[in-house]
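User
New here, help please:
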Amino acid sequence: MIIGSRRVSTTAAPRHSVIHRPLRAALAATLATALSTLLACASLLASLPAHAAHAIAQYGEPKYPAGFAHFDYVNPDAPKGGTLVLANPSRLTSFDKFNPFTLRGNAAPGLELMFESLAVGSADEVATVYGLLADDIVVAPDGLSVTFHINPRARFSNGDPVTADDVKFSLDTLKSPRAAPQYASIFSGIKRAVVVDPRTVRFEFVERNRELPLLAGSMPVFSRKWGMKPDGSRIPFDQLAFEKPIGSGPYLIESYDNGRNIAFKRDPNYWGAELPVRVGMNNFDRIVYKLYADNVARLEAFKAGEYDALVEYIARNWVRRDVGKKFDSGELIKRVFPQHNGTGMQGFILNTRRPLFQDVRVRRALDLALDFQWLNRQLFFNQYTRIDSYFANTEWQAKGLPSPGELALLEPFRGQLDPAVFGALPKQPDTDPPGSLRANLLQARDLLQQAGWTYRDGALRNDKGEPFRFEILDDSGSAGAMEPIVATFTRNLQKLGITATFRAADYAVYQKRLDAFDFDVTTIRMPDVQVPGQEQVNRFGSKAADTPGSDNAIGVKSPAVDAVLNALVHAQTREQLSDAAHALDRLLMHGYYVVPHWYSGTHRVAFKRGLAWPKTLPLYYGAEGWITSMWWYEAPDASTPAAGKVPNKAPKS
């Protein structure tokens, strides 16, 4: 999906089911993950002369020149109209607020439709961004600031013009303690926003960092009047609940019901419909989300015609369950769409804050116990490839032996690192002949013995006699899909004397436990990036490990990783960024912090007859956001779903 200047590849590495971390809030989490091509790519911006521009290209010139008509991957003549009905886009099964930028509570799905940013990325370039709210961008020659001029036509949904004061207010609010803590981390390199005049705002940086100009451009902008009472007093930002956001995006909240359904209508006065970066987009009059309690209910509801499009992440469902009379008649259609996103990392996340997982030999042993080849044959219909890198399917994936540039980053920490880090990359366990699960488990047993774990009295025990046992946590809405996978994994662990129990918790409880890092093992997907940058600091930096709600669920605290992250975000050239990314990948893979899962190079989508999409596909995209932003109904008629208005009722406490 495209949110402001952030390209959010929510399904960039299609997963077997529910293996991404639950969205802390619909837009809050996507911002942290969406630094993909937009945020991270700024790491390579060369020193730019001060000049106004419609776009900034990371390499060479932007694909689209000033005055371009529209992106190549949209249909500029797409008809407008109809109602698109969708189901839960994440594990979210209910919501209790409209503020996606705070930590507590669950934000409604679709709120990204209401917010925009100063610049927006294109979906067919890795490293170019174009003005959205801003019509000119000026990067200072010294790289210590960037200035945006706001388009005079830009308007909030209440009719007010978007001003530099609103931009400054948005930054100050997001960096404040009342917003989710990851925003303070993400925008830590921005010292302040300075109002130059009503339509000009300058972001000043703590230090020269090639990523920061685009990071500033990616920031969601909202009105200062959001949460303001008639008497002029203000509701504290972290207490905003069902106060409707005042943003500049193409959609407005039309109705909602009991925290389970929400409908958006296209703003008839949307200011940006004719912008080149918006032509051919936002084609539905209404977009409705219906939230179902679990995957089974969601699938059956789709087959019953309750909503219009289903992005299928479960291979078993795609082959065996996404079938029936409506598929046979053509009323429901299945289609596989290619994509070129990186995979991201997904898998069983081992919380290294727990003493049980602090020995790398133990973590490696657990990796050896997962039989991917068996799972792929028996459960996945051979539709997946094992993940072998945090940047798989991209040029940033480490390969072979460390390069001279990598060694220069790693050498200062040679005494602290496993010597294996300076050798070949580890290969994921394989059980296809001549490999076998038995051989892998024997190797795992040896590693566990080296770490002080031996089998006695019916269990694997340490020198204190304590048994090796842990809990795999998931949310109840996704437990059904993960259960056969976890059962296979735990059965293999039992052969080592390890007891792993599977616990499914209510989504709200699950999310709260993850935010507090109160878990042993869970399943998480770290969304892909086309070019790594600041988001990696929030995922693997030592400071983030101690910040509740951060993306460092693993708890990585490594001086070597911190040094490489610093080199990555301060890279001045493509070569420097490549060396830092490869070194980071090498450190993380040798750390065995995750038991990696799998990925696919396609999006599987089932949808109702009548929906259509552009002939030219984007290169880097998430299926859900692509559907909401660029699809349309060819001929809205009586068969077009009409959700009807949903009464405005807040969830019951």
